[in-house]
């Protein structure tokens, strides 16, 4: 049986933003998780009142606000998380996924989202049964609390906790060559016409080419909860039509379910730092999809260029000074 890491890399388990049509499936996973995993921590009366008068509509506001990420396998929601700046608001996995590592991975995703626009510790309100899980991931209890459910206003004891796991770790690919097969699968899924069956590219060959420490070409891997979640490379050669320019940022990819959480920005800033340390004074990038990221990181748009029948935007970034 594949590990969680292998299932995420192969696409057997996918992460993606929830949409409103997912609300019934999310609610079903929510009930499944609570009724099976919380039963030993709360009384039968509390369990009976937990979902009294509630429906899938409780998840509509969070989904509509873009706060929720779900994990699914074969179309079945295995778990989900949600966060707002400064707080992880929801995290549940089905009993069949408990102990697999999926909860920890979703927590890292939620903490990334909670840290968007927020400095300082992240807050989570933990049920009795989940306290040890959060402690394992760097949270500490701050105070006891409770919430109320049902017509009888049944109280449920919880623990307010603060802290959270570290942000994604970014390392040279040369330090983690064992991750190449997993990143290779992401390359093949992201660029099937080039790296897929019958395509002219060889993803593993290119990754081996990027596996250097302090010289170009240089590849960087972003890891979240130990799993590769993004990749970016700096290479001397770029567009054949612009041989006088370089070096070039390219081969940039972030796991689809983890985009817009700052991973691409972290990779780009670290790549810029390492390029400056190697004595580079200016970087270039030609892109059809990453213009907003480049602009947020202070890159300058130069012009449009044609490449392989596609119109790309050309950017540069002075380093140092």
TrEMBL record:
- Show the PROSITE patterns listed in the entry: GNAT (PS51186)
Specify the N-acetyltransferase domain's residue ranges: 13-163, 168-320
Any keyword Transferase?
yes
Q: Coiled coil located at which positions?
A: none
What name does UniProt use for this protein?
GNAT family N-acetyltransferase
Keyword Acyltransferase assigned: yes
Taken from the record, one Pfam family name reads Acetyltransf_1
Its taxonomic path starts at:
Bacteria, Pseudomonadati, Pseudomonadota, Betaproteobacteria, Burkholderiales
Alphabetically ordered keywords of this record: Acyltransferase, Transferase
């Amino acid at each position: 049986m594949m590990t969680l890491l292998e299932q995420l890399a192969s696409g057997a388990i996918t992460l993606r933003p929830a949409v409103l049509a997912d609300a019934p499936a999310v609610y079903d996973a929510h009930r499944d998780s609570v009724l099976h995993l919380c039963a030993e921590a709360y009384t039968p009366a509390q369990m009976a009142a937990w979902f009294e008068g509630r429906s899938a509509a409780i998840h509509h506001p969070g989904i509509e606000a873009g706060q929720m990420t779900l994990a699914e396998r074969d179309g079945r929601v295995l778990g989900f998380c949600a966060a707002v700046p400064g707080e992880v608001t929801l995290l549940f996995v089905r009993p069949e996924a408990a102990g697999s590592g999926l909860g920890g991975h979703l927590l890292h995703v939620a903490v990334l989202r909670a840290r968007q626009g927020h400095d300082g510790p992240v807050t989570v309100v933990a049920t009795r049964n989940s306290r040890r899980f959060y402690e394992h991931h760097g949270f500490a209890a701050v105070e006891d609390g409770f919430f109320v459910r049902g017509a009888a206003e049944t109280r449920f004891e919880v623990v307010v906790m603060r802290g959270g796991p570290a942000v994604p770790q970014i390392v040279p690919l040369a330090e983690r060559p064992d991750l190449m097969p997993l990143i290779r699968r992401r390359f093949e899924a992201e660029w099937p016409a080039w790296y897929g069956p019958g395509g002219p590219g060889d993803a593993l060959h290119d990754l081996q080419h990027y596996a250097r420490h302090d010289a170009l070409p240089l590849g960087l891997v972003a890891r979240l909860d130990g799993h590769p979640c993004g990749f970016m490379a700096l290479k001397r050669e770029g567009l054949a039509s612009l041989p006088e320019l370089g070096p070039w940022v390219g081969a940039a990819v972030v796991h689809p379910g983890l985009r817009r959480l700052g991973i691409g920005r972290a990779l780009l800033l670290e790549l810029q730092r390492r390029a400056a340390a190697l004595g580079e004074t200016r970087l270039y990038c030609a892109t059809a999809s990453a213009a907003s990221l480049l602009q947020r990181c202070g890159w300058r748009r130069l012009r449009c260029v044609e490449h392989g029948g596609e119109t790309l935007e050309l950017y540069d970034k002075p380093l140092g000074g």
